[in-house]
Amino acid sequence: MEGTTTNDKRVWKRSFLTLWFGCFITALGYSMTMPFISLYIDTLGSFSTWQLNIYSGVAFSITYFSQAIVSPFWGSLADQKGRKLMCLRASGVMACTIFLIGTAQSVWIVILLRFLQGAFSGYINNATALMAGETPHERSGQVMGNLMTANVTGTLLGPLFGGLIAGTLGYRITFFITGFLMATVFVLTYIYAKEHFVAIPAKKMKPMKKIFAELDNKGLIVTMFLTTLLVQSSLMSISPIISLFVRQLMHGQGNISLISGVVAAMPGFGTLLVASRIGRLMDKTKPERVLLFGLLVTAIVFVPMFFVTSPLQLGVLRFALGLSSAAMLPAVQTILTVDVPSEAFGRIFSYNQSFQATGGVVGPLIGSLVSSVFDYQGVFLVTAGLVLLNFLIVLKFVPFKLHR
After folding, report:
1. Which part of the chain is the Major facilitator superfamily (MFS) profile domain (predicted)?
2. Residues ≥6 apart with Cβ < 8 Å to 46
3. Where along the chain do the CATH 1.20.1250.20 domains lie?
4. By CB neighbour count within 10 A (0-12 exposed, 13-18 middle, 19+ buried), where does 221 fall?
5. Residue 257 confidence (pLDDT)
6. Per-residue pLDDT tens for 167-218?
């Protein structure tokens, strides 16, 4: 694989540390601003509750929507120009769009900038693809797990920093600081991230159709794409209604916002606790086994959420969800790293990102629809069904991997 011919291990390790920091700041910057999008939009005009909900929903989902559409194009370009360039493109545009959101005077400007942010996004995805090419195979699982840790840690700390900044300095300052942080990521990536990449001319680059035709494991790759979509959908299905469900459990009494935030963050704490260990486990055993185990345990954990009667019970179960879900997306990425030719890394990982972004749209829609037709608890049973279906699909299409 790319990068394994160098004798200087410090090169890929320095690249890894740089990209870990970049993934951390990207996730931090995203989560710093996302909890306040609806509140920020409310300051840009006089809106009814219905209008505010619609505008907030559009501003939230349009980033995932544009990301899902455009990612394959960037993946093709990554295989021609390199993944480091794609990291620079993503961090640079994110720095600009987030900073400009802080200057917006209209909700439509916010939505437009959010659309552009999604269309030019992909730092974490390309950092993962870059490290997949630079990391020795025997360290792939650990590196993928640690990159997931960077993502989760940033997502966890973002709301805390964002809340502190917004509460003391205002919403707009939060966007300005986030833009500055992403500009820092751009500079550090440019200076310190190294990629041993041999450009593939567009005329010589194999089309994805031909690459897929040459793969011996087409079913496995497609299954991993579908798994990414279903995992992301299941993890985000509760997102739109978690604060409402917590309010119901608390009977409208107490500090609902604080308790909702803690409950929402619990899976992140669980994932952070075990992500690195699971990465090392995948280097010792097969990632397919780890993925199957994670899917099965996750499906089981969702079921008792249907019966919770207090925020404490919900929080404990969501912490357990973080422990089990920590195995899933890193396992998918490790499987793709091992089973995909290096010349197609950029495109394969970008397709995978498209499926993940689609899950970011589908999951909240499922949660909102199910909770509207049935009740909040119904979301957990439907989600458990989705994860169990995912388990059965993986079991069907990759059983030969389990005994290899």
Report:
1. 15-402
2. none
3. 1-205, 211-399
4. buried
5. 61
6. 788 889 989 999 999 999 999 999 998 887 766 666 666 666 776 776 667 7
Q: What is the mean pLDDT of the chain?
A: 80
Task: Indicate whether 399 pLDDT > 60.
Answer: no
Say how far apart CA 134 and CA 361 lie, in whole Å: 32
Structure tokens at 13: 């390790």
Note whether 265 and 163 are within 8 A (CB).
no
pLDDT, tens digit, 9 for 90 and up, residues 323-369 = 887 778 778 877 777 666 666 666 777 778 778 878 877 887 787 77
Taken in order 376, 372, 257, 167, the sign of the CA dihedral is positive
Q: Give pLDDT, residue 316.
A: 92
Fold of 1-205: Growth Hormone; Chain: A; (1.20.1250)
May I ask the CATH architecture of the domain 211-399? Up-down Bundle (1.20)
The dihedral through the CA atoms of 78, 191, 127, 359 has a sign that is negative
